[in-house]
Design a protein that fits this description.
Structural class: alpha/beta
CATH architecture of the largest domain: Alpha-Beta Barrel
Largest sheet: 7 strands, mixed, barrel
Strand order of the largest sheet: 3-4-5-6-9-8-7
CATH superfamily of the largest domain: Aconitase, domain 4
Number of strands: 9
CATH topology of the largest domain: Aconitase, domain 4
CATH class of the largest domain: Alpha Beta
Number of domains: 2
Order of helices and strands: HHEEHHEHHHEHEHEEHEEHH
Distance between the termini: 44 Å
Number of helices: 12
Strand content: 15-25%
Amino acid sequence: MLASCGALSWMIDAGARILESACGPCIGMGQSPQSAGVSLRTFNRNFLGRSGTKDAQVYLVSPETAAVSALTGVLTDPRTLGEMPEIKMPTAFMINDNMVIKPATVEEAVNVEVVRGPNIKPFPESRPVADTIDCECILKVGDNITTDHIMPAGAKILPYRSNIPYLSNFCFEVCDEEFPARAKEKNGGIIVGGENYGQGSSREHAALVPLYLGVKAVIAKSFARIHAANLVNAGILPLTFANSEDYDSISLGDKLVLSDVRACIENGKDITLKANGKEIKLVSSLSGRDRDIILAGGLLEYTKGE
């Protein structure tokens, strides 16, 4: 529609670069800012290094502020240019779906062959949660861990989103470079985190990759809501400390034992963690459906069993 009305050529003549309507700079793909440079962005992420340059100073602004500042060359309040012009919405929108392939019918689906190239690996398998989880603390992190900490973005990694085994080599790389190797050596384990664990982008790979690495549970002071839901969907048990001070009593490499896990989840009861000779009360805040999902081993297994 921009091309049809001529607005696209106006934008290009003004010096604008046009990207496709898809994930781009928001996930570190394209238009990376200069090193240590200031950049105004209208998308929703400015985590350290997210835009593709580790030391860039990225500020989030409105589209109006970005457009006006691009014209003036300095950060500019668009209201200084007068009243906002009236924008009229089109009476109708052009729709072209000739590149959209509709899903196969139920009858056709049984004969559909899923073709996977060399960089497309099967989905990691999950299993029903065990009644006893006996393993080590394979990682301990602090507050405000983002999904970028868990599963980094950027041009080096994103082409492998369909290759979970390869992505696993970068999991928590910014926090602990040895984590992927340790998780594989220990055959998985438990992660301990602080406040607001899993904040930021809702990327499901931040749950799928820990699933592949054998993470059984994440125990934190508190969770970001969407990431907690993604952990449940992946079959990883999210638990919070009833007493946040108990966080300090667990260290990397400690043996951790959760007992009567299934019964506690089914009945909505607290779960007891044994660590260093101490019993620690953990809270499971799962809803009825989430309980069923985690008991089944994740959303896919739950859906198959319905």
